[in-house]
Amino acid sequence: MEKVVLIKYGELTTKKGNRNFFIKTLYQNLQNKLEGLHVKISRDISRMYIEFEESELDTVLSKINQVFGIHTYQVASKVPTDLDEIKENILELMKEKTGTFKVETKRSDKNFPILSTEFSRQMGGLILKNNSNLSVDVHNPNTTLFIEILERFTYLYTDTYYGLGGYPVGTQPKGMLMLSGGIDSPVAGYLALKRGVKIDAVYFEAIPHTSIEARNKVIELSRKLSVYTNRINLHIVPFTEIQEAIYKECNPEYCITIMRRMMYRIMERLAKKHKGLVIINGESIGQVASQTLVSMSVINNVTNMPVIRPVACLDKLEIIELAKKINTYETSILPYEDCCTVFVPKHPVIHPSLEECIRNEEKFDYEEMIQRTIEATNTIVIREKDKENFEDLL
User: Fold this and answer.
1) What is the dihedral of CA 261, 208, 213, 349, to 10 degrees?
2) Distance between CA 143 and CA 158 in Å, rounded?
């Protein structure tokens, strides 16, 4: 019997007038993800069908698990919508099953002469007659046989797997992710991708206070996030001049707050340069001094661009659980400091004054520094398969 993977959309079905756009984007994303494999993808308004070579099935399924926009998928037997063909293949599919079972039929082809409930009853009787190791349990069966009857073909399967859900990446425009190298920001990037947002990543480094290992750590995190999208542009911002000026000229208690305000200014300008519509970061309410509500308000004051904080209301254990799920945790905890941690003062202010920030910022010409920083920013393209360390950027 021929096997196919059935892809079911879930949340995409709520899109009504834009549904075709979402389905087309998912189709293209699957094409990109399965490139190089011997597959054929077709689609209609309710699902997609992936034909594959048996030897590549495990690879196909692993890659499907990296594509947003998929609610569930099944590996199904595809047979002609012919009663004898259906019966023959059902018996083949169920011959090795043991324990309890039930049958569920969905009859999309209303010209098929047997109603769904009656067909389920008939097929259940056929299975019982041919497999003495099975008994019926309609409430809590070990195996459920699903029969989906369409006009030309019928699909038979017993197992349903859950995809990542969300929307296909690319159904929303670009956001600019502040990727620090910690645990939180990669998770924030993953959650933004799940809502269909394309992302560029931005990493602030302060050579020689931060290391090439810290940069490579961020490159590796970008590579791990690129599993869920086609590519990620990583913008590496040389932040040394600005950071040293802050710590030379400003009240130590305000250094982190002012540093973040400078980063937001740079993020807004990079977003405009690279056609990003929002800033995305891994801030979690109350986790550190710069993430109290007062601090967020004062820091946010320098930009009118929307700031999305996907993990804002998650606790640290929830964020760690997600980081482990997406395979970024072990990289994030590597002991290489970024510029947000290398100069942390002993007593950072947790309820900063906007007026005090402005007074401190007037002590140095940050506008010229920001312009020089943006002009010196390097951009590299990160893909899952890339292995370069990009050490020539130093």
Assistant:
1) -30
2) 7
Q: H/E/C letters for each residue in the chain?
A: CEEEEEEECHHHHHCHHHHHHHHHHHHHHHHHHCCCCCCEEEECCCEEEEECCHHHHHHHHHHHCCCCCEEEEEEEEEEECCHHHHHHHHHHHHCCCCEEEEEEEEECCCCCCCCHHHHHHHHHHHHHHHCCCEEECCCCCCEEEEEEECCCEEEEECCCEEEEECEEEEEEEEEEEECCCCCHHHHHHHHHHHEEEEEEEEEEECCCCCCHHHHHHHHHHHHHHHCCCCCEEEEEEECHHHHHHHHHHCCHHHHHHHHHHHHHHHHHHHHHHCCEEEEECCCCCCCCHHHCHHHHHHHHCCCCCCEECCCCCCCHHHHHHHHHHCCCHHHHCCCCCCCCCCCCCCCCCCCCCHHHHHHHHCCCCHHHHHHHHHHCCEEEEECCCCCCCCHHHC
**Residue the block writes with tokens 């756009």:** 21
- The residues with which 177 forms a beta bridge, in sequence order, are 201, 280
Q: Cα–Cα distances in Å, from 3 out to 27, 47, 269, 323, 336?
A: 19, 16, 51, 34, 48
**pLDDT for residue 390:** 53
Contact indicator for 164, 67 with CB cutoff of 8 Å: yes
**Does the predicted model carry a pTM greater than 0.85?**
yes
Tokens of 332: 């994030």
With beta carbons less than 8 A apart as the criterion, state whether 179 and 204 touch: no
d(CA 10, CA 103): 22
**What end-to-end distance do the CA atoms of the chain give, in Å?**
57
CA-nearest of 9, 93, 1, 82 to 49 is 9
Domains recognised in the chain with CATH numbers:
2-163 (3.30.2130.30), 169-393 (3.40.50.620)
pLDDT tens digits for range 141-188: 999 999 999 999 999 999 999 999 999 999 999 999 999 999 999 999
12-49 residue pLDDT tens: 777 777 889 999 999 999 999 999 999 999 998 889 99
With both helix axes pointing from N to C terminus, report the angle between 83-94 and 116-130 in degrees, rounded to the nearest 10.
50
Q: How far apart are CA 107 and CA 73, in angstroms?
A: 19
Per the DSSP assignment, residues forming a β-bridge with 161 are: 73
